[in-house]
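Reviewer comment 2.1 asked that we show a complete input and output for one of the modelled complexes. We chose the NAP case, as it is the one discussed in the main text.
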Amino acid sequence: MSKQKANIAILGATGVVGREITKIVDELKIEFNTIKFLSSAKSAGTKLEFQGKEYTVEEAKPESFDGVNIVLASAGGSTSQKFAPEIVKRGGVLIDNSSAFRMEKAVPLVIAGVNNEDLRLHKGVIANPNCSTSQLMLVLEPLKKFGIKRLIVSTYQSVSGAGLAAINELRDDTKANLNGEVFENKCFKKPISFNIIPQIDVFCDNGYTKEEMKVVNETRKILHLDESVKISCTAARVPVFRGHSEAVDIEFEQEVTPDEVREILKNAYGITVIDNPDNFDYPTTRDADGVDPVFVGRIRKNLAFDNGISLWCVADNLRIGAALNTVRICQKVIEMELY
Ligand SMILES: NC(=O)c1ccc[n+]([C@@H]2O[C@H](COP(=O)([O-])OP(=O)(O)OC[C@H]3O[C@@H](n4cnc5c(N)ncnc54)[C@H](OP(=O)(O)O)[C@@H]3O)[C@@H](O)[C@H]2O)c1
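Response of the prediction step:
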């Protein structure tokens, strides 16, 4: 007999990622018994429409998780840390977007379609990777068979990766800049309009930022790469509302040609290849806005490495980088009856 349909809660439903999760639960036709929408006290009482029905957003409290089987959370690390024990104690599964649990040994860090089997190891909490790692995993998984030896990633990340307040800051700073007015930036350490900021998250002792180290450590965990694989990342914030772009240089153990990579990626899960420079066909950040694929182009032989390939990839950070993967994980948890 198959399991009873799940009771689902969306925690952080009024945020940038939470709204996208809500949309995708509908798009992917996730089957549920009941669904509820949770936020902090600030947005509690907000009305939202979902599948033709009006729901009232409730303030998240421990009791909110009574009888809930699956929680899709995007409410920040401290909120997830506060509620995780309450959710697990009540028998629920937390699928979490924050970085709070990603590197914990007992917590599977999963990209649906890349390492689904890791889901079976969950003990109540499943983590969704950082947005810049997520899009990269779908590209690297089908190429892993050539033996990844070294990886260098440079990211160009949009402001929506930093939430609603950051989106507003880019808009307001741009207007102020064009009108010659003074603008006081709050979300970012430097002005974001007409600028590129080489800092995302705080600096670590080794001179890398936390965001850069997320790419390094999460890539290793998801692809099960050992310490002998050298990985480096530089992450920059760019004045783009939505969509992250990445320049990726990979050194492989075995020789592989750009044509082979192009062919493999054309047939890979979640990837769309746009790669005909003669015709100026390559993906730009705007191509990814609001859609699911990770777009790859500019596939070429890397001149600095033996057996090296360079490529460019763009994706919607709010979808594959957060909400889409969260809901795809939920879909897998339901299919694999892991709740
Ligand atoms: N944006 C991205 O691309 C991205 C990608 C990957 C992961 N993430 C992660 O996802 C999380 C949310 O990001 P976001 O961009 O959606 O942020 P956001 O737009 O600021 O939304 C935050 C959401 O969390 C809720 N919340 C805040 N404190 C809460 C509390 N104490 N109890 C219950 N709910 C609370 C907020 O409710 P109120 O409306 O009541 O304030 C809101 O619904 C963060 O952990 C972020 O790191 C974001």
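The mean pLDDT is 97. We note this here for comparison with the apo prediction described in Section 3.2.
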